[in-house]
Amino acid sequence: MTPQQPAAPVKTSGQRPRILLIGANGQVGWELRRTLAGLGEVIAASIEGGYGPIIDLLDHGLLARLVAEARPDAVVNAAAYTAVDKAETDRDVARRINADAVGELGRLLAERGIPIIHYSTDFVFPGTGKRPYTEEDVAAPLNVYGETKLGGELALLDSGAPSLIFRTSWVYGARGANFLLTMLRLLREKDELRIVDDQVGSPTWSRMLAELTALVLYRVLRGDLDLKQVGGLYHLTGSGEVSWFGFAQAILERAELNCRLIPIPSTDYPAPARRPAYSVLDNRKFQETFGLHMPDWRVSLDQCLELIPC
């Protein structure tokens, strides 16, 4: 990296910055409520409400009112349409949430000069390579979910809002619907499980993702990072790579459960949406820019399992 002058601090409306968190009840959003709390006042918006304002990304008027009323100094958008298979037949809703709403949010924030951190996915890539994908590699999604998430990336970048887009993958955690919790339940219930072994990626713990997000946002709010210089796309996943079968094996061993795992090809487990065979992301740009890195996925898995009664 070349040296640069630090940016001016974000001008806050009070002593503590106001951070608008969208998607506060999701896997990552739930963790962000905790990690962002040390940075300032968190306005935790979700479609369910409960912890803060209700937000529906299909309603652009409601989104505009939320931004106007919250008067945030920064926004973190952890909301998305994530039902990969359902998106194949629910294309319009997936596009409106993952692409159109993100572009509208970017436009609203660009007008006010408010920085935003947004999450995207490894599914923007086709998975035909054999090395980790970099931010410079051409995106070519295989499914509607990936297409709409890529559309959101492009819309946010085109909006002119000061933005950081973190592409991540295979997110799991101690709550929500994810591979880890599904495996723990099935490993207790079944004597034998057939797990896909020809899709390779990087498991990413939602808590670690939220913690690194908070560390970066802290520097943005302080003015140590100028998003005119370092804004844009970054890959942020657990380090290392593994197949779904290998991930399941690691869960089985660490949870000390008894179940026979059988590796199978994707063709034996047909799904409406095609998945990339290899979607490992290269995190070097994030590491070099921010001086931070994700631990190996095995380390994060061990730490996460300490929070879950097995």
From TrEMBL:
<dbReference type="InterPro" id="IPR005913">
    <property type="entry name" value="dTDP_dehydrorham_reduct"/>
</dbReference>
<keyword id="KW-0560">Oxidoreductase</keyword>
<comment type="pathway">
    <text>Carbohydrate biosynthesis; dTDP-L-rhamnose biosynthesis.</text>
</comment>
<comment type="function">
    <text>Catalyzes the reduction of dTDP-6-deoxy-L-lyxo-4-hexulose to yield dTDP-L-rhamnose.</text>
</comment>
<comment type="similarity">
    <text>Belongs to the dTDP-4-dehydrorhamnose reductase family.</text>
</comment>
<dbReference type="InterPro" id="IPR036291">
    <property type="entry name" value="NAD(P)-bd_dom_sf"/>
</dbReference>
<dbReference type="InterPro" id="IPR029903">
    <property type="entry name" value="RmlD-like-bd"/>
</dbReference>
<dbReference type="GO" id="GO:0008831">
    <property type="term" value="F:dTDP-4-dehydrorhamnose reductase activity"/>
</dbReference>
<feature type="domain" description="RmlD-like substrate binding">
    <location>
        <begin position="18"/>
        <end position="306"/>
    </location>
</feature>
<dbReference type="GO" id="GO:0009243">
    <property type="term" value="P:O antigen biosynthetic process"/>
</dbReference>
<dbReference type="GO" id="GO:0019305">
    <property type="term" value="P:dTDP-rhamnose biosynthetic process"/>
</dbReference>
<dbReference type="GO" id="GO:0005829">
    <property type="term" value="C:cytosol"/>
</dbReference>
<keyword id="KW-0521">NADP</keyword>
<protein>
    <recommendedName>
        <fullName>dTDP-4-dehydrorhamnose reductase</fullName>
        <ecNumber>1.1.1.133</ecNumber>
    </recommendedName>
</protein>
<dbReference type="Pfam" id="PF04321">
    <property type="entry name" value="RmlD_sub_bind"/>
</dbReference>
